[in-house]
Recover the amino acids of this structure.
């Protein structure tokens, strides 16, 4: 038998509720609010729930259960977890690298939200309502001020033609430019090039955006200060360890639900809410024939569940060995997906109101990603009484949603490093506090590149290449293979039984062995075949070649860890081919919790024998 390395005594959650709340706080983040509702609307409304639920059952839930139970089994973080199949330790290294990149750029979204929150508090009215600020341009015009003209596109749509003639325009004027519209005209280029004050506030006041990645410009000092404060908040949430973090998440994980409920009640009472909800939920089953819809469903599940970054492993590792992690993980999966659907009702009730007020279609005002948080919603609340109150409510929710996802990802990274090198921190006074502070400072300094005038382009580059897409799918594929094919699925089921007292459903065996790795690899190949270089359509910006090269460096910095480590450890390990397979793929290790269970069982038998005697 290979003896397990001596592990320094580590903390545990005070109760199973701490674990569940931490998982909810981590997994439920901005992706549930800014990505799922838009994907649902874009990919067939209610029909999108079919591929989404299938993806959840085949991939999301199996991997969520796998990661949390893996951590609980070994009571160790994302690097030490691979002592049961050492040849795949590169997966843990890749996860740590990916988590490091994610920690750097994800948090900048919170600095943007803090900027909006600060401006909502400190001014008499929200500063994106009108065009009389220093950052506004002559093109600024409120989206709620109707321009007295109709565009060529509107006229062409009316006649259902692609090319307008003078006769079309003349006939349209005769029919529509009468009565209240007698002074209306056909829109000129200047009329159509107006920019809303919401967009100018975002571009010029918040981002101070430059012409591109090759024009980094100066530091946005207000964003840098807000970024610093958010880093300090995240540090204070985790620096003392899980006993402290387990209490913090009760606030950070529950507060967004209170905010979402308040926003939902207000949203459903608005004019046009029904229009938005119809666009959100009305099923279009023809969309299910498009491959993009299924790929979007799979990637959304991976994105919103926070898989592959080592955080879930870390959170599970602080459980007691006999905790029923199986049922708790399923509970969190249900809450996560339910929150995504619930958030869609909130978002699209406001988007329907926006579309009604602006006399536009929902398709014209619906946006995904940062555009939803920082353009669509701030615009939507302008027509509400007490605009500042709703603004404060919304951006507080964004901050709470993002903060716990951020510090739980940080905890996953720190747990992996500290468990791998416990002598660096656990045997020293304030060792953990100092180590966490050093990494936070380094991450903050690197993250300053995202709060320059060209920082938005850096952010998009990190988001596209560093911790999502093919890099994440590559990691999850090998993570699943490590358990199902290297360790052996029957052996893993025995480990599960030793923890929870019974064998899980055979469904998960099918998923871990066949379905989940097949889907991961299939979507990975599809993404690479359909690969198109990153482009930001909102700014009509194509990245330079060196930008894409840097992006691929971010991807490969994690992806190459997996084959690289496997090759290195194979040649380093002594022995015959069969001996290496045994040592690197299926070593015999002693698992502390399982040993204690066996000792307790032996003691119970002795007691029973004594009583019977």
């Amino acid at each position: 038998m290979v003896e397990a390395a001596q592990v320094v005594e580590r903390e545990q959650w005070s109760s199973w509720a701490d674990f569940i709340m931490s998982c909810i706080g981590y997994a439920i983040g901005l992706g549930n609010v800014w990505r799922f509702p838009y994907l649902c609307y874009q990919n067939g409304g209610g029909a999108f729930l079919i591929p989404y639920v299938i993806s959840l059952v085949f991939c999301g839930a199996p991997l969520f259960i796998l990661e949390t139970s893996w951590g609980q089994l070994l009571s160790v973080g994302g690097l030490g977890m691979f002592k049961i199949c050492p040849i795949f330790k590169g997966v843990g290294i890749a996860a740590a690298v990916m988590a490091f990149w994610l920690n750097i750029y994800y948090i900048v979204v919170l600095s943007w939200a803090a900027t909006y929150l600060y401006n909502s508090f400190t001014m008499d009215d929200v500063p994106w309502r009108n065009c009389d600020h220093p950052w506004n341009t002559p093109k600024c015009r409120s989206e709620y001020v109707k321009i007295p003209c109709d565009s060529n596109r509107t006229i062409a749509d009316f006649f259902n033609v692609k090319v307008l003639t003078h006769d079309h325009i003349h006939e349209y004027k005769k029919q529509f430019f009468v009565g209240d519209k007698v002074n209306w005209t056909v829109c000129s280029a200047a009329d159509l090039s107006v920019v809303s004050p919401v967009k100018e506030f975002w571009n010029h006041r918040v981002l101070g955006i430059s012409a591109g990645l090759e024009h980094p410009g100066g530091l946005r000092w207000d964003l840098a200060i807000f970024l610093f404060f958010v880093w300090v908040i995240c540090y204070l949430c985790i620096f003392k360890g899980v006993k402290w973090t387990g209490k913090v998440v009760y606030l950070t994980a529950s507060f967004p639900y209170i905010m979402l409920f308040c926003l939902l009640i207000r949203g459903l009472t608005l004019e046009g809410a029904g229009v938005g909800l119809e666009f959100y939920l009305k099923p279009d089953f023809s969309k299910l024939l498009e491959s993009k819809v299924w790929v979007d469903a799979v990637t959304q599940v991976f994105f919103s569940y926070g898989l592959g970054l080592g955080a879930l492993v870390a959170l599970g590792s602080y459980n007691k060995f006999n905790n029923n992690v199986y049922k708790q993980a399923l509970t969190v999966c249900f809450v996560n997906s339910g929150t995504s659907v619930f958030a869609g009702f909130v978002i699209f009730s406001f988007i329907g109101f926006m579309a009604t007020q602006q006399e536009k279609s929902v398709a014209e005002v619906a946006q995904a990603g940062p555009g939803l948080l920082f353009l669509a919603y701030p615009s939507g609340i302008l027509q509400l009484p007490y605009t500042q109150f709703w603004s404060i409510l919304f951006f507080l929710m964004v901050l709470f949603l993002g903060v716990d996802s951020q510090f739980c990802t940080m905890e996953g990274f720190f747990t992996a490093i500290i468990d791998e090198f416990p002598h660096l921190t656990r045997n020293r006074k304030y060792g953990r506090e100092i180590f966490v502070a050093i990494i936070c400072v380094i991450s903050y300094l690197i993250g300053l590149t995202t709060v320059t005038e060209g920082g938005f382009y850096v952010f998009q580059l990190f988001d596209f290449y560093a911790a999502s897409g093919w890099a994440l799918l590559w990691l999850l594929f090998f993570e699943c293979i490590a358990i199902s094919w290297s360790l052996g699925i029957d052996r893993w089921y025995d480990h599960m039984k030793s923890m929870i007292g019974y064998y899980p459903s055979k469904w998960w065996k099918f998923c871990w062995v066949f379905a989940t790795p097949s889907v991961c690899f299939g979507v990975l190949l599809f993404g690479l075949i359909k690969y198109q270089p990153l482009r930001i359509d909102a700014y009509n910006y194509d990245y330079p070649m060196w930008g894409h090269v840097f992006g691929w460096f971010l991807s490969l910095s994690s992806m190459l860890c997996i084959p690289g480590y496997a090759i290195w450890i194979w040649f380093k390990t002594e022995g015959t081919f069969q001996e290496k397979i045994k040592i690197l793929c299926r070593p015999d290790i002693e698992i502390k919790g399982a040993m204690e269970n066996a000792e307790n069982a032996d003691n119970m038998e002795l007691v029973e024998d004594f009583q019977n005697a």
User: Anything to note?
Assistant: The beta strands are 149-150, 185-186, 535-536, 541-542.
